[in-house]
Amino acid sequence: MELVPRDPEWETRVKSSFAAQRFMKHLGAELVHLSPGAVDLELRMRPELTQQHGFFHAGTTSSIADSAAGYAALSLFAVGVGVLTSEYKINLLNPARQAVLIARGRVVKPGRTLTIAKADVYGLQDDEQVHVATGLFTLMSVAGVKD
Amino acid sequence: MELVPRDPEWETRVKSSFAAQRFMKHLGAELVHLSPGAVDLELRMRPELTQQHGFFHAGTTSSIADSAAGYAALSLFAVGVGVLTSEYKINLLNPARQAVLIARGRVVKPGRTLTIAKADVYGLQDDEQVHVATGLFTLMSVAGVKD
Amino acid sequence: MELVPRDPEWETRVKSSFAAQRFMKHLGAELVHLSPGAVDLELRMRPELTQQHGFFHAGTTSSIADSAAGYAALSLFAVGVGVLTSEYKINLLNPARQAVLIARGRVVKPGRTLTIAKADVYGLQDDEQVHVATGLFTLMSVAGVKD
Amino acid sequence: MELVPRDPEWETRVKSSFAAQRFMKHLGAELVHLSPGAVDLELRMRPELTQQHGFFHAGTTSSIADSAAGYAALSLFAVGVGVLTSEYKINLLNPARQAVLIARGRVVKPGRTLTIAKADVYGLQDDEQVHVATGLFTLMSVAGVKD
Predict the structure, then answer these.
(1) For C11-38, what is each residue's pLDDT tens digit?
(2) Chain C within 8 Å of A125 (Cβ-Cβ)?
(3) C3 located within any domain
(4) 3-state secondary structure string, chain C?
(5) Is A63's CB within 8 Å of B64's CB?
(6) Best of D52, D85, D114 to mutate (most C CBs within 10 Å, chain C)
(7) pLDDT tens digits, residue range B19-32?
(8) Do B131 and C108 touch (CB under 8 A)?
(9) What is the pLDDT of residues C116-146, one digit of tens each?
(10) In a domain, B1, yes or no
């Protein structure tokens, strides 16, 4: 399936919308890859992101997975159509205690109203890569919402 | 179903584990209710918690839902058994743009290995209460993990 | 939240659509309760519905949960709008080996495009009731589909 | 990740457990591929499997996805350990109205207690293949259950 953006300004739009997500800045997440239907976000370990055992909190892992999936979807939306997460499900596969997390959001099925995406999160430490989470996301197109 | 804690120190344990979640402090979440199998967390709106439209980011809403469900489960665990989120699913029902969010985590089915909990998140503004999210969580008992 | 049907013929429509679900007949499911936003389905144990241990197969439990949630949603839809399941998540809480299953579908949040519903499935045996499953469902309104 | 069966009789065990699932026979599902951590099931369209629009019922699609995921997991289990579905989530991506459905279950992360698997369901018609569903499954190892 080839995914084709409908908004000629899709790259600018995704980047500026991501930059406007104050919460992503609060976490320290960075957008490190962008192509049609695909977005990767990276997050470095900091004590502020941990749960009681010193791992990344499931909420931080999920948050970057959600933004990666949402922006993968937005990259394919028409001009003037915004994105909202309708629902998602995530499985935490391994403890997320690596130096860096990378969330890879990929569109599985684009749609006019609903777009289905998946996101896989990997923990990177030294030369090792651990699969820490996998999720499925339903993103909704919202007309008249600036994104 | 009456839920009975197995650890006589359950209240202290849940409170000190919550206090050790650096991420909850980074968000600004507070534990406002605790009873066996039930935990409520509260979170005040701050710009650092928002997505691109100024609503609470789905990640913040989910994060407090996850912690509320996880601590509802932990309140019933035996001494020396820690809690990890195995997986969850959440539906975002309404835009979360209220002054305060409250996440109510409730155990649905306690278990030796797996505990199933739900969490509902409400947005409070003036005298109104909006149901902003509902989720189902699977929490895992982890022996030998300090919580 | 009071749920008000928009189609004056809602009862007839739900009943005749349910009767047209050949798969529900193949399982042996019956519609035993119908009110606005609420549908209960009942299913008697038969060997054809079991998995390898003689319990109801997770697929049968989920199938009646899905139909109960879908018809709970359809009961609130406008004239000429059909229903499709967009996605769902279900937790199997206890082995389903009772004489009868009852799936209770309830609308959590009605909407023009998406309706969120939950379904709880109980196993009934003698005087006992066991909570065998709980799920969350997203139902989609489909214009121009006869239901 | 190479997946290695722990039970030398894994093939026999999966096949005979599948043959014992009365519900799979009631649907008409067949096991068409089996390798370590991977199971494919096939299901031909029959009127008894449809919902009110004549498509495969979401329950049939999910049921074969669930069995495919479950047997993919069981193929890796130790001798004498049975499998139960703990929970799953599935997105219905396209109407399932093709002549044949094929559900491909694949283990994502094997584990002693919990195994995470995914399943993708495709509809086959003439020379076309449509992605009709994708799901994530948590399977539980159950000691002392014959499978």
Answers:
(1) 999 999 999 999 999 999 999 999 999 9
(2) no
(3) no
(4) CCCCCCCCCHHHHHHHHHHCCHHHHHHCCEEEEEECCEEEEEEECCHHHECCCCCECHHHHHHHHHHHHHHHHHCCCCCCEEEEEEEEEEEECCCCCCCEEEEEEEEEECCCCEEEEEEEEEEEECCEEEEEEEEEEEEEEEECCCC
(5) no
(6) D52
(7) 999 999 999 999 99
(8) yes
(9) 999 999 999 999 999 999 999 999 999 977 7
(10) no
Q: What residues in chain A have per-residue pLDDT under 50? A: none
Above 80 in pLDDT, residue B33? yes
- Structural domain harbouring A57: 10-143
* Subunit contact B138:D140, Cβ cutoff 8 A: no
Residue B146 pLDDT exceeds 90 = no
What is the pLDDT, as a whole number, of residue B29?
98
Residue D74 lies in a domain: yes
Residue D89 contacts A, CB cutoff 8 Å: yes
Label residue B96 by pLDDT band (50, 70, 90).
very high
Taking residues C54-78, report their average pLDDT: 97
Amino acid at D96: A
Strands B114-125 and A114-125: unpaired
Q: Categorize the per-residue pLDDT at B79 as very low, low, confident or very high, splitting at 50, 70 and 90.
A: very high
Does residue C34 lie within any of the structural domains? yes
| CATH number (domain holding residue D70) | 3.10.129.10
Looking at the structure of chain C, the number of domains it has is: 1
Nearest Cα to Cα of residue B144 among B85, B81, B71, B86: B81
Strand order in the sheet with D128-143: C30-35, C38-44, C100-109, C114-125, C128-143, C81-92, D81-92, D128-143, D114-125, D100-109, D38-44, D30-35
Placement of tokens 């005040």 in the chain: B44
Residue D60 is predicted with a pLDDT of 98
Chain D residues 20-59 with CB within 8 Å of chain A: none
Separation of alpha carbons D49 and D56, rounded Å: 6
Chains that touch C (3 or more CB pairs under 8 A): A, B, D
Strand partners, B106: B38, B118
Closest chain C residue to D18 measured between Cα atoms? Answer: C52
The pLDDT value recorded for residue C73 is 98
Interface membership of A106 toward D (CB under 8 Å): no
